Amino acid sequence: MHDEHLLAGYLSVPRAAREGWPSRWLPEPFISLSRCLTGVDHGPEFWAWHADPAAAARFDGHLLAIGFTRRDAAALVEALRGELDPADAEPLALLLRQAPMPEHAVLRGFEIIGADFGLMDVHSWLCHGYEADAGVHLNQWGLIDTHAQATDLLAWILGLPPEEAPKPAHWTVAAVAELPHSRS
Asked: What pTM was computed for the model?
């Protein structure tokens, strides 16, 4: 994983509870990068994630490293270039430097996320309830096991008719790895 993915940043997030969630496909609890699902504000002001692990660790929860393949990172930077200057955008700084994922990070899986408002927020494919129709087995953390599975699922989601399509955003696949830090 570490050679294949570039580091985008860090978040400390609590495990999301399935309470009130209509999906029987999700484990209890599960990991998500989306504030919609975790129910807490866990990022820096104006950005979806932190560039510094110490800043992220100040929030309660499990410290996660977020990564992208080189191709997905390049596509994300290009998609957001019209909304913000990548050189001044904290969440893109590590991607532009092509920093590797931390060696001690443990890959938990992959989440399909939609970058919104110039990376001020991210949404999860789970917010749209696609997991029941997708036919994908989620792992014990509520994530997709492989990048290939997540990429295929993203292609399926993006091919849905407009009335079933997700919220307009730059949808991509994020690697989610856990670091040995926890305050929950």
From this structure: 0.88
